[in-house]
Amino acid sequence: MKSVSASRVLAYLLSALAAIFILFPFWITLSNSLMTEAESAAYPPKLWPTGLHLDNFSGVLASIPIARFILNSFVVSSVITIGCLITSCMAAYAFAFLRFPGKKIIFALFLSTMMIPWEVAVIPNYLTVRSWGWLDSYAGLTVPFLATAFGVFLMRQFFLQLPKELMEAARIDGCGHIRIFLRLAVPLSMPGLATLGVYSFLNHWNMYLWPLLVTSSEKMRTVQIGVSMLQFSEMTAWNLVMAGLVLVLLPSLIMLALGLGRLVGGLTAGALKG
Amino acid sequence: MENRIENMEKAAPVPLQQEQGAIRGSEPARAANLGRFREAALAAVFIAPALLLFGIFLFYPLVQSVYLSLHSTNPRGQVANFVGLTNFRNLFNSPGFPNSLIVTLKFILLTVPASLALALAFAAVCRSRIRGMRIFRFVFALPIAVSVSTGSIMWMILFHPTLGTLNYFLGKIGLAPVQWLTDPNMALLSISLMTVWMNIGFLFILLLGGMQGIPEEIYESAKIDGSGPLRTFWRLTLPLVSPTLFFASVTSVIGAFQAFGQINILTKGGPVNSTNVLVFKLYEDAFVNFRFGVGSAQALVLFAIVLLITVLQFVFAERKVHYQ
């Protein structure tokens, strides 16, 4: 019993140390966002703000169109997430329940897309999107990402786990595939949809290289590009930069708090059993 | 089958009925054919959107990359003339590209093992049902919510030579300040530190999910057998989570090959190219200097390396992985 409590104390201690390593950058960001400009530029650096200078947030909102950036990112991530859920569910249903010629080959083709790093395709994709006149548009930011092999595998996995009897009963009752798909398979796979949704949203909210390439005007800029330009605009006022970061972090953190339960286990399922 | 034989027997005396039977027999067959055709058509409709997108934005670019890599391009990005393998030859003959390969390799060695080890340790601690672990679980997952650009700027202030808290703490314990991002011997290490911090969120979530898939009874019987926490970890958790760990290591290596944002924001490949990883070099060649041919050649080399590593990892590591 004694050794159990000793190992428990050790576990707490190590966790606390690890938590400090993870949390420290967050803390510095948050505390600087609440400092005055003089405080954030002071030497030695201050770890605590003296007061809550909430006007940093209104300051950053006034100096750069961060609300517009957040809106852009929100539109882009939402469109990609919804599109991804639709294309993934449809393809996954076909691979899970429909018989058709060439199924194995097409499935292998889907699998092989996981081997192509996106960076390899970035030059031709840039040229394609430019030739279509999609630079600086929502279409250019979203359409290339509307399907992922990962999503197809994850959803297929969830579909295959649905009780067979249920599907057969529906078939005997004369339900066609489209009805089974819409009324049975998709609603019963909500946990899978939630996992894929949270993952896809976070991933595309955080996209960097592609928006950097295809957007040039301020009104189409996503939050990640906007944020990385914070420090180059005028002189660097760290308190304002950090206030901007806090505003940008907030939606992702809320998303994580709501969706963490779904991500744990859900991602592993898609990764291994696909 | 039996039904049909019965039918035939009954029908035998009267030929006309037999004919009817034959017609009746082929109708379900035709219906089945039609059904199968409709099923295949539906499958085609269901698969088409994803397949079309993969075709346009993944498969076609691969082919186009090969084409571009064999040509030189003008500054507008249009193909000028066929140059054969010159782009590839120039890549390996100039110092820039081999340097990028080495920097990328170092970056992988600095980030992947550390990220995996830390995430594994954090997950092992969080798996145990100790009170308060839900809070730690959220904390360890936090970096997944941080984008590469946000994370880079968060660390930029930590790395700041005078305002940064890292140098402040070093000073407190009597050490000289470090030029985190401007010292050529330090910059890659600093970028790696920040990258490990960023990687932990996703890897932690992935590995914790893998550990939660291990049945609780196995742990209980290990406990009854008197196995301590460390022994349980090495003998039980690690082998059973190895499929997830394997997947995590493959994705981490590929992810490290794709590193770009933190380098673009924090160091721009410098100082003296000490952080000039492959994708950053590709970006500079293609989108700063508009040499799409050279850029495509690099993209293809990157693709070949990633493919090779994936295959190697599958061949070698998969044998050692324990699947239940």
Automatic annotation (TrEMBL), chain A:
List, alphabetically, the SUPFAM superfamilies matched.
Answer: MetI-like
Specify whether Transport is a keyword of the entry: yes
In this chain the ABC transmembrane type-1 domain maps to 70-259
One Pfam family from the record: BPD_transp_1
Q: Which PROSITE patterns match?
A: ABC_TM1
PANTHER family named in the record: ABC TRANSPORTER PERMEASE PROTEIN MG189-RELATED-RELATED, SN-GLYCEROL-3-PHOSPHATE TRANSPORT SYSTEM PERMEASE PROTEIN UGPE
Similarity comment: family membership: Belongs to the binding-protein-dependent transport system permease family.
Q: In its UniProt entry, what is this protein called?
A: Carbohydrate ABC transporter permease
Q: Which organism is it from?
A: Saccharibacillus alkalitolerans
